[in-house]
Design brief:
Shape: globular
Structural class: mainly alpha
Largest sheet: 2 strands, antiparallel
Strand content: 5-15%
Number of strands: 2
Order of helices and strands: HHHHHEEHHHHH
């Protein structure tokens, strides 16, 4: 088995990145002035939001990856919003900046408890299988799906959300989060996108974050 120990320099750098990311997220959340936001922040801490990975084997599958992905999604959503206003000025009256911040930063809180540390097999640069630290997925904690789980957790945390914010969080996976065998799911998703631009905005930003902002050279080499 390979040595999975993290060097002091790497650990210190990782902690600094996580600290800066957390501070930026907290500043953004508090900037909304939303009632109950401090309770939500307390729950994020308790849920492990700031230390969880964003995935088990794909984008940002490292400690603190979930917070980083959420921040990336927020930055992408705000950038897309500013760009879209130049071609669709009316968008400014349909979408609020606070709504973008809340929906983007909190869309994936469902992931806080599904990743557990483990040792996995992977090929090294020489094509030899070796042990490596990683994560496995478990849905024992609260098996309620994805977007709907995030939404339920936030509402139970006491965060008052507008309709567009709730729907943006619920449907942020886009077609991947729709049961194509359910006529009701398909129609609800389609209606949500057409009624509320925030739904498409968050969905788009989520994809931009994962596929562009968080891609690695290693992932490209493996294609």
């Amino acid at each position: 088995m390979v040595d999975l120990a993290v060097t002091p320099v790497t650990a210190t750098k990782t902690k600094l990145i996580m600290k800066n990311c957390k501070e930026e997220i907290l500043e953004l959340l508090r900037s909304t002035g939303r009632e109950g936001i401090e309770d939500v922040i307390g729950d994020l801490e308790a849920w492990g939001f700031f230390t969880a990975p964003a995935s088990a084997g794909h984008h940002l599958n490292v400690e603190g990856g979930l917070a980083k992905h959420s921040l990336n999604t927020c930055k992408a959503a705000l950038a897309v919003f500013e760009a879209m206003k130049t071609v669709e000025p009316g968008l400014e009256h349909e979408v609020k900046r606070d709504s973008i911040i809340l929906a983007s930063l909190l869309h994936d809180v469902c992931k806080c408890d599904i990743y557990k540390r483990t040792v996995k097999k992977r090929k090294n640069a020489l094509g030899i299988w070796e042990d490596a630290e990683g994560y496995k997925i478990t849905y024992k904690g609260f098996p309620m799906g994805h977007g709907e789980k995030s939404l339920t957790l936030l509402l139970c945390s006491g965060l008052p959300l507008n309709d567009d914010e709730m729907l943006a969080i619920r449907w942020h996976m886009g077609a991947w989060g729709v049961n194509q065998n359910s006529y009701e799911d398909v129609r609800n998703y389609d209606a949500a996108r057409k009624l509320y631009p925030l739904v498409t905005l968050i969905q788009t930003a989520d994809g931009l974050a994962a596929s562009i902002m968080e891609r690695t050279g290693e992932e490209i080499d493996e294609l």
